[in-house]
User: Fold this.
Amino acid sequence: MNLRFDSRQHLLTLTSFSSNEAAERLSEYLRHCPQAQRPTAILASGDYIAAGAVTALQQAGLRVPQDVSVMSMDGFNLAAIHDIPLTSVQVPRDELGEAAVRMLQQLRLHPGAPPGTLLLNGKLVVRESVRRIRDNLSHAPVEQHGLYD
Assistant:
């Protein structure tokens, strides 16, 4: 929906990938967040963090995905075995490891070579933790101005 991102309001940082820490931080956030400003979706950086978010939401009396959608950026550890199967972007872990080794080898062989960029695509796996908010399958409109400034 092209909403502005405010890290003070929209970002919770953790010191680990622990589901317990994620649940504690999100519970604390929800206790202090006015109901009108509560999130409608959470993008977690890993499955364990997403599982902790689901726990915190349920403890706060919120339903996933009816009240809050939850999505993970991992998709391998808990996505299929959690109480609520998590929608996730599966990160190509094997390909990342292989590419990292190749890049290190190239740096070792050619230390003065300019740095490069490599894009590895993940795979979106839609499960039951994200609620569809529109009936049609077309893309949401994108604002052309102010999107990337």
